[in-house]
Amino acid sequence: MRFIDVFNGDADGICALVQLRLAEPREAELVTGIKRDINLLKHVDAAAGDKLTVLDISMEKNTADLIRLLDVGVEVFYADHHQPGDIPEYPNLSAHIDMAATTCTSLIIDKYLKGQFHQWAITAAYGDNLTAVADKLAGEAGMTNTQREELASLGIYLNYNGYGAKTDDLLFHPAELFKQCVAYASPFDFIHENRAAYEKLSNGYNEDMRSGLTIEPKYKTEKLAVICLPDEKWARRVSGVLGNELANQFPDRAHAIVSVKDADHYLVSLRAPNSNRSGADEVAGQFPTGGGRKAAAGINALPINQLEQLIDVMEKQYA
To answer: What is the CATH number of domain 3-204?
Structure first.
């Protein structure tokens, strides 16, 4: 029997698996990638009796491979907060799906584990830009403002590390970052005891964000801003967290952060206005490689000649 852990390479995927493996320690094969690499089950080959954990990747985008694995008798535990499509009915599938705009996969796991590693779940909520939710949970847990700020920063840094066109763009491979985090029962211990990893994330984030915030929008109205980043590693890393930061700075404005994927395509991060956390998924869904949630979505490979079309779609959505 093999154990295989499949997880999104962002803060939510990492913190979800950290909680599970702190509660149920086991050596497992790790399957992960950049945040946008969500078709992860295609990389999994397993047999009857193998135990597969899948966290924070859309079931809808992985349905064919999920059914392939279920059909041969793999035992699957699946937790996620994205659109699942039709959930397959199999006795060997344990599905924990909640699409509420106020939750994320780590909060789903937090409920499943009855709050055993609650601080890691709060960290993920901050990383997933569920700031109001995370603040409420931190307050209920009796945290000081300093502690809240520490978890918020860590969540943002973990999330930042997941963005890129390929894992070579990232400061840490997500599998390595998971291993660094799971060594600590509390994120505060990670922050204060693993200074080398924490400072690498912190310094990288702050340097990349400074660069990103200097870029003037290519297109800007009261309701929409489109920022086109240069073809550099830092720009691909900062694409998602820059969108979150701008959404927080300009809560009535939608944002598209456009970075270069390859010679023919852009990688796009979409953020709905914080004052109206909806519509990003509808915008992304009008393009073949688009998907996501109401407040935050993305397009994995937008043909370069379709940028104006994207702006038109966003104008109609948010005008």
So the answer is: 3.90.1640
What CATH number was assigned to the domain covering residues 219-318? 3.10.310.30
Q: Given the DSSP bridges, would you call strands 93-97 and 75-80 parallel, antiparallel or unpaired?
A: parallel
- Contacts for 131-139: CB closer than 8 Å, 24+ residues apart: 131/248, 133/102, 133/103, 133/107
Q: How far apart are CA 125 and CA 133, in angstroms?
A: 7
Question: Could you tell me how far CA 119 lies from the centroid of its own chain?
Answer: 18
Q: What angle do CA 81, 85, 86 make, to 5 degrees?
A: 120
Residues 6+ apart with CB under 8 A from 70: 76, 88, 90, 92, 93
Q: Which residues have C-beta within 8 Å of that of residue 71, sequence separation ≥ 6?
A: none
Q: How do residues 248-266 score in pLDDT, each as one tens digit?
A: 999 999 999 999 999 999 9
Distance CA 40, CA 54 (A): 9
> Per residue in 54-82, pLDDT tens?
999 999 999 999 999 999 999 999 999 99
Domain with CATH 3.10.310.30 in the chain: 219-318
CA angle (114, 294, 38) in 5-degree steps: 70
Q: Annotate 230-248 with DSSP letters as a single string.
A: PSSHHHHHHHHHHHHHHHH
Q: Where in the chain is the domain with CATH 3.90.1640?
A: 3-204
How far apart (Å, rounded) are the C-alpha atoms in residues 168 and 179? 18
| pTM for the structure as a whole | 0.89
* Encoded amino acid at 211, one letter: S
